[in-house]
From TrEMBL:
SUPFAM superfamilies: P-loop containing nucleoside triphosphate hydrolases
MF (Gene Ontology): ATP binding; ATP hydrolysis activity; transmembrane transporter activity
Family matches, as PANTHER family: ALPHA-D-RIBOSE 1-METHYLPHOSPHONATE 5-TRIPHOSPHATE SYNTHASE SUBUNIT PHNL (PTHR42798:SF7), LIPOPROTEIN-RELEASING SYSTEM ATP-BINDING PROTEIN LOLD (PTHR42798)
Name of protein: Phosphonate ABC transporter ATP-binding protein
Family: Belongs to the ABC transporter superfamily. Macrolide exporter (TC 3.A.1.122) family.
Entry keyword Transcription: no
Domain spans labelled ABC transporter: 1-230
Keywords per UniProt: ATP-binding, Nucleotide-binding, Translocase, Transport
Entry GO terms, CC: membrane protein complex
Pfam families attached to this UniProt entry: ABC_tran
Family annotation (SMART domains): AAA (SM00382)
Species name: Pedobacter yulinensis
Record-linked InterPro entries: AAA+_ATPase (IPR003593), ABC_transporter-like_ATP-bd (IPR003439), ABC_transporter-like_CS (IPR017871), MacB-like_ATP-bd (IPR017911), P-loop_NTPase (IPR027417)
Keyword flag Nucleotide-binding: yes
Length: 230
């Protein structure tokens, strides 16, 4: 991923907020990058732009050889559904759907047929250690289990890129570590991960930390204990 000079301004009535002010960043295939920085520095905006959920005013965002910022709306959402998975702080599971149905959603978006969906969902449920929870609804699960379901949903489609926004923010430290270990395992199997976090502990699982301030990158730090694996 190559990001150049991203600029994002939010306009509300009289106020203009520059959320991204010339972001330059490179993420290698298979890398696990943490984005850190004070509240309001643009972390979530950057993640939303990378997830094609929000559009910047200017700049370039290349993913493999495709420039994503000039894609038409239809192509953009098709690209997102095919290549990206999301993990959010508040899990973002759909309360009215069972665990199985929540995990199945990205496959339905991608028009995968029912028998293939069943196979893929059951595989990932096994991997995430939530086998006996298939028919439960999110509210019947602990926070750690809900986040495992959310990670399963992000992965079921085998996306190239997983975007995680404070994935352990609502979890106690034991469940938080479980989720971080899952993300690491996934990364070791080749998935590129970009994670926003306030937690130095969570960031220690990643290969590199990118620090933002006032909408741009102020420093980067390679995590020596994990970068050797790249
Ligand atoms: P972070 O995730 O680092 O806390 P954000 O990306 O959420 O930062 O926000 C960056 C800046 O953009 C902040 O000043 C925030 O108030 C502003 N901002 C974010 N979203 C909106 C929005 N939808 N409308 C107006 N301003 C916004
Ligand atoms: P649009 O067609 O308007 O771009 P989509 O139908 O692609 O929107 O997506 C609608 C919403 O569903 C998005 O805001 C996104 O947050 C969510 N979404 C889409 N794909 C996924 C996915 N694979 N995993 C989780 N949420 C998704």
């Amino acid at each position: 991923i190559t990001i150049e000079n991203l600029q994002k301004v939010y306009k509300t009535e009289e106020i203009e907020t520059t959320a991204l002010n010339g972001i330059n960043m490179h993420v290698a295939e298979g890398e696990f990058v943490s984005i850190m920085g004070p509240s309001g520095c643009g972390k979530s905006t950057l993640l939303n732009v990378m997830g094609l959920l929000d559009k910047p005013e200017s700049g370039s965002y290349r993913f493999l050889d495709t420039e994503l910022l000039t894609l038409r709306d239809r192509d953009r959402s098709a690209f997102r559904k095919k290549n990206m998975g999301f993990v959010f702080q508040n899990f973002n599971l759909i309360d009215e759907l069972t665990v199985f149905e929540n995990i199945e959603l990205p496959l339905i978006y991608n028009k995968v047929n029912a028998s293939e969906r069943k196979k893929l969902v059951n595989e990932i449920i096994e991997r995430m250690n939530i086998v006996n929870r298939n028919k439960h609804f999110p509210q019947q699960l602990s926070g750690g289990q809900q986040q495992r379901v959310a990670v399963a949903r992000a992965l079921v489609n085998r996306p190239k890129l997983v975007l995680a926004d404070e994935p352990t923010g609502n979890l106690d430290s034991a469940h938080g570590n479980e989720v971080m270990e899952l993300l690491c395992e996934l990364n070791e199997q080749g998935t590129t991960i970009v994670m926003v976090t306030h937690s130095a502990h969570d960031a220690s699982f990643s290969n590199r930390i990118v620090n933002l301030k006032d909408g741009h990158v102020i420093s980067e730090k390679i995590n020596k204990s994990r970068s050797a694996e790249l």
